[in-house]
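Form 7-S
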Amino acid sequence: MANVEHTFPVEVVYALPRIQVLKQLTVTDGCTVEQALLSSELLDDHPEIDLTKNRIGIFGKFVQLDMLLQPHDRIEIYRPLVIDPKEARRRRVGSRNNQRSSMVG
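Output:
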């Protein structure tokens, strides 16, 4: 009996501020996250993606590039944070407090 490779679908997602890019792929058993990213051509379309800097996840959980994919995995490419979330919250709260104090005075 011939050795038949099994294939299955996965998705690669990259979210930008105004658009979400989604690529659907069919990969074979033994395909890694990195192999799927390279075959998606998303890296060619978005040269700002750097696999040495951008974090990668599957369904919101960080993964390594050599992780083997499972059927229906959703590979997510995360953009670097522009500002620390705690600092962003402090700025929002500070802005609201300044607006309130200017209304009182």
